[in-house]
Automatic annotation (TrEMBL):
One GO CC term on file: mitochondrial inner membrane
Cytochrome oxidase subunit II copper A binding domain: residues covered: 91-224
Membrane topology annotation: Multi-pass membrane protein
Principal place of residence: mitochondrion
Repeat is among the record's keywords: no
Naturally occurring in which organism (per UniProt): Columba livia
Alphabetized NCBIfam families for the sequence: CoxB
Domain annotation Cytochrome oxidase subunit II transmembrane region profile: ranges: 1-90
Requisite cofactors: Cu cation
Cofactor binding, per record: Binds a copper A center.
Protein name from the UniProt record: Cytochrome c oxidase subunit 2
Function in brief: Component of the cytochrome c oxidase, the last enzyme in the mitochondrial electron transport chain which drives oxidative phosphorylation. The respiratory chain contains 3 multisubunit complexes succinate dehydrogenase (complex II, CII), ubiquinol-cytochrome c oxidoreductase (cytochrome b-c1 complex, complex III, CIII) and cytochrome c oxidase (complex IV, CIV), that cooperate to transfer electrons derived from NADH and succinate to molecular oxygen, creating an electrochemical gradient over the inner membrane that drives transmembrane transport and the ATP synthase.
One GO MF term: copper ion binding
GO-annotated biological processes: ATP synthesis coupled electron transport
Gene: COX2
Length: 227
C-alpha cells in the first residue's frame, strides 16, 4: 500500500501493474528527452544571433515533422500492447463477482457453491491494533496466488468503481451492466483499494481488501466458509 510522502506508484503485485509501471517510466524518459531538446533550442536561439539559416531551413522543417511521428509511435506501440493484455481473459481459474452497494461490497465466488458474503469497512472504534484505518474490512477477498482471476463488476444502486492500485485493476461498477477484468497476483500478500467513483456521502468508507494466498490455504478457506 502507499506510504506517506510517496511520489511513485505502489509496489507492483501483478504482471499487468509491472507493465504499467515500466510504460510510465518509458513515457517519462521520452518526455524528459523532448523537454531537454526544447530547452536547448530555446537557449541556443536566445544566445545566438538570428541568421538566414533559422528562417529558411528545409532540413529542420523535415526533422520537426518526422520526429514527432516517431515519438508518437514509440509511445503508442507499448501502450496498445498493454491495453490488449489488460483486455484479454483466457480460461480463468476462478471467477469472482463484485457488487457495489451504498456503501459496501458484496462478493460471489461463482465457481464455488454457496460462497457469498458482504464486505463492510471496520469502524475506527472497533479496529484491531496494527490494522489500517478506513482500509480494513470484516471479510477480505481471498484469491489463490499465481492464478488467473476473472472479476465481474456491477452495482446495485449508483455508480461505483472496484480499484486495487497495486494489482493494476480499476473497473467501473454500473447498475444493470456487467464489466469484467482479470488479474494475477504475483506474490502472497494483502492488497488494499477503495471505491474510485464518487458514489455518495460515504464514498470514502467502502474499501477493498484482496488477500493472496497459496492454493492449499485458499482451498481450506473456501471449504470452511462454504460449510
Amino acid at each position: 500500500m502507499a506510504n506517506h510522502s510517496q511520489f511513485g506508484f505502489q509496489d507492483a503485485s501483478s504482471p499487468i501493474m509491472e507493465e504499467l509501471v515500466e510504460f510510465h517510466d518509458h513515457a517519462l524518459m521520452v518526455a524528459l528527452a523532448i523537454c531537454s531538446l526544447v530547452l536547448y533550442l530555446l537557449t541556443l536561439m536566445l544566445m545566438e544571433k538570428l541568421s538566414s539559416n533559422t528562417v529558411d531551413a528545409q532540413e529542420v522543417e523535415l526533422i520537426w515533422t518526422i520526429l514527432p511521428a516517431i515519438v508518437l509511435i514509440l509511445l503508442a506501440l507499448p501502450s496498445l500492447q498493454i491495453l490488449y493484455m489488460m483486455d484479454e481473459i483466457d480460461e480463468p481459474d476462478l471467477t469472482l463477482k463484485a457488487i457495489g452497494h451504498q456503501w459496501y461490497w458484496s462478493y460471489e465466488y461463482t465457481d464455488l457453491k454457496d460462497l457469498t458474503f458482504d464486505s463492510y469497512m471496520i469502524p475506527t472504534a472497533e479496529l484491531p491494533p496494527g490494522h489500517f484505518r478506513l482500509l480494513e474490512v470484516d471479510h477480505r477477498v481471498v484469491v489463490p496466488m499465481e492464478s488467473p482471476i476473472r472479476i465481474i463488476v456491477t452495482a446495485d444502486d449508483v455508480l461505483h468503481s472496484w480499484a486495487v492500485p497495486s494489482l493494476g485493476v480499476k473497473t467501473d461498477a454500473i447498475p444493470g451492466r456487467l464489466n469484467q477484468t482479470s488479474f494475477i497476483t504475483a506474490r502472497p500478500g494483502i492488497f488494499y483499494g477503495q471505491c474510485s467513483e464518487i458514489c455518495g456521502a460515504n464514498h470514502s468508507y467502502m474499501p477493498i481488501v484482496v488477500e493472496s494466498t497459496p492454493l492449499a490455504h485458499f482451498e481450506s478457506w473456501s471449504t470452511l466458509l462454504s460449510s
